[in-house]
């Protein structure tokens, strides 16, 4: 079963070592694979993680921000930064285990 969640992007470093950050939200879809104790995977894990949309926050309260198109280079840069570490996968697993996936 596919689940969806909104992931908050907060001070996401776009490039390692650079002081260039993104703020906003990413729409995420994922599935949860069952534990596989016979191969050493003792708990369910996130499989087939996909970012379906990215919206950036505005620079001040009067700026509504904007939705990025998936063909924009900035979208691709933010997407790559989100997949750079395990934070997004961990957030999806917490969403699933915390019952958020059942509220859909």
List descriptors.
single chain; alpha+beta; 2 helices; 21% helix; 38% strand
Q: Could you explain how this protein is built, in words?
A:
The chain is of the alpha+beta class and 104 residues long. Strands 1-2-3-4 form a four-stranded antiparallel beta sheet. The mean pLDDT is 90.
Structural class: alpha+beta
Walk across the major sheet and give the strand order: 1-2-3-4
Shape: elongated
Order of H and E elements: EEEEHH
Distance between the amino and carboxyl termini: 12 Å
Write the layout of secondary structure elements.
Blueprint: E1 2-13, E2 21-33, E3 45-56, E4 66-68, H1 73-83, H2 87-97
Antiparallel strand pairs: 1-2, 2-3, 3-4
Provide a quick synopsis of the model.
This protein is of the alpha+beta class. Helices cover 21% and strands 38% of the residues.
């Amino acid at each position: 079963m596919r689940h969806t969640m909104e992931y908050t992007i907060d001070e996401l470093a776009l490039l390692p070592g650079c002081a260039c950050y993104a703020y906003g939200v990413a729409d995420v879809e994922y599935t949860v694979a069952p534990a596989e104790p016979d191969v050493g995977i003792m708990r369910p894990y996130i499989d087939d993680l996909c970012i379906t949309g990215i919206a950036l926050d505005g620079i001040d309260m009067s700026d509504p921000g904007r939705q990025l198109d998936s063909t924009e280079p900035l979208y691709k840069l933010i997407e790559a930064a989100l997949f750079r570490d395990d934070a997004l996968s961990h957030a999806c697993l917490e969403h699933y285990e915390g019952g958020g996936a059942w509220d859909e």
